[in-house]
Amino acid sequence: MGQIIILDNSEDDLPDVLTSTGQGGFLSSGTLQESPATAALEGDERAQFVLTNGKYGVTFESETRRDEVRPGKGYRTIGVVTDRRLVILVGGVDEDGDHEFAVPHAEIEQVETTTRLRHGELTIRRTGGATLTLYCGTDGLDTVTTFLDAVSQAWVHTETVLEDIRTSLVEASDRREDGDIAAARAAVRNAFDRLSDAEATVSGVPSERAVAAMERRVETVSARAATVDTRIRRSYANQLRDEGEQYWRDQRYEAAYDTFEAALDEYEAALSHRYEDVPDVSTVQSERDRLRETLDRLSAAPIERAEQAAEAAAAADEPEQAVTHWEIALERYRTAMGLDWGADERRFDGDPAAIRDRLGEVAQRLTETRRTIASDKTEAGDWYAAAGQYDPAIEEFEAAREAFENALETAHDCYPDAVEHLRTELDAVEGRIERAQAELTECDDGSQPTSDRDGAVDETTPAHAAGENNHSVVEK
Q1: pTM tops 0.90
Q2: Is 414 exposed, middle or buried, given 0-12, 13-18 or 19+ CB atoms closer than 10 A?
């Protein structure tokens, strides 16, 4: 006659059959010869059921053979169903003492029971086809079967999923080493999707102890997944950071900001794992913090660069140099004003209204400086024309015309008050060009007169070429 004991998961007050040893006598039943059954359990393993018999032992069958192991006289067979496996201990079998067998729940393919007149039989079919039959009592056998069915199926499914996860993590690590970050990210995402599947399976197991054991198993793989994910996210963040820096160099500020933010998200996601699962966690934190500082610098960069160009223009000694800097400043202010256009929240420094006002000021200075150049060129052309040197006069007038046209282009866009006056001056220059061309055509031999005129400066170089500049301003 066998017995089935249903435990309440308490570590206290375990039945004697688990904690004692010794050979039974006429009025007492023995247990095991060498060590108590609890010695066969691992540190965090917990017994759920105890199945015993004192006569039949356990039978093993495969396609080719059948073996039966029975306890020695006065000893017992003890089957312990734990949260993770079935442990079978047969006491006092031979001179070697007790025999121990174990079947992890993940290797149980099918559970069957048979109830006979004096005992019950629990038959376990293992993965691969072999079976073992443990003889026991009948009272509580259905409860044991229900437990083993549910837990073994959960363990089998969980182990299958965890193996898939391990495969994905190996692939993710390999792809990262190859530099294929996109493929690595896809593989690690698949691993985390499968982890969710494993966690859902565990949550449905009808045993707190079994759930705890399975959770520890899942947690081990989850920690590895977090480590691999951290490495991949860090690599991807570094890649994005490099891309963002290139965008910045190309003055594609919004693209740079978007890319830096994506990199920051990767760092934050990496650090969302348990710190003990994050390799070089302090380094990852430092990289994240530096990227935040980079975002702050990027926010200020467009306005700072525009101001730098405006300051260089104001400090320039020559109008031509000033024009170059004012043009750069104008373009940079236009860029700054267009950033985050229409967005509810600006990411870049500078109030749009203030930038618009500053843009108008820069446009005015650029227009004035171009007019200064145009006036200087006009004055030089007048000097050459008065000296009868029409070819250089025409060159100066044409340069003046170009400067007036450039000034008008800026004025049309940003400084409308100057448009009318500039058009008048442009018309006057075009008239000078026509007269000079006519004078040149009328020359019989095409030679250029160079004689002095009454009251003319006795030099062959106009004032602007000698370093004298008339920095006039636009009349309003």
Answers
A1: no
A2: buried
